[in-house]
Amino acid sequence: MAQAAAAKHEADLRAHKVVALRGKSPALVAAIERANKLFPVHAPINATYAFEIGDVKVTLDYLLWAIAKAEQRGGHPLDILLTIEHRWADVEAMLDAYNDLLDAADKN
Fold this sequence. Notes:
The protein has helices spanning 2-21, 26-38, 43-49, 60-73, 77-84, 88-107; strands at residues 51-53, 56-58. The chain is mostly helical. The protein has one domain.
């Protein structure tokens, strides 16, 4: 029973990944795959919410790193790109999903 549930879950994840990555550029998909190898728990968020702004591929790990750098230095070039391109809503959606992931982990 548990093996069947695990197999179904894996199949559902693969199906979600295929749908979520549809329409993303090959460069963004490659960035998502690299990030997911380093941080597998971020994979659903990256597949769904990762985006490009200029030449920058924004995955969850990159966003968290940029936020940390902005806090240390008082700013990061990504801030400017997000403002110019009006993409702060994408950041908010990604961070909301990350918050949900953290909440779910706390409950387990």
